[in-house]
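Consortium newsletter contribution from the modelling node. Members have asked for a concrete example of what our holo predictions look like. Here is one, prepared for the zinc ion complex that several groups have been discussing at recent meetings.
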Amino acid sequence: MDDCLFCKIADGAIPATVVHQTDTVIAFRDIAPQAPVHVVLVAKRHDTDAVALAKAAPGVLDELFLAAGEIAEAEGVGGSGYRLLFNTGADAGQTVFHAHLHLLGGTRLGPLA
Ligand code: 5GP
Ligand code: ZN
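And here is the predicted structure:
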């Protein structure tokens, strides 16, 4: 999609600190980290949110979660724990309307909301 930030990162048109990449998935450090480890995982295909991705290409969600597990281990938070979340829609705080999975860890995280 022409006007989508995460499509541009996936295409390499906008730089990011990439920590993991496959044919279908790319993961990069969040530009404004909310925890010591904050990685954003996206499918390279464009879908507006996680539910749209689930409907269009459900297997890709499996790939995102498996990649998140690998990244958590690589970042050293696999044992201590980490949070995985999809913000879905404006009221949830979604600001980039390309489905993405946040991986947060490296500290004791507070309660949601
Ligand atoms: P959302 O709020 O939509 O769930 O998450 C979007 C995330 O993308 C935010 O945590 C935000 O900091 C991050 N972000 C926004 N612009 C950029 C960027 O240009 N590069 C990177 N690496 N992250 C970004
Ligand atoms: Zn996109």
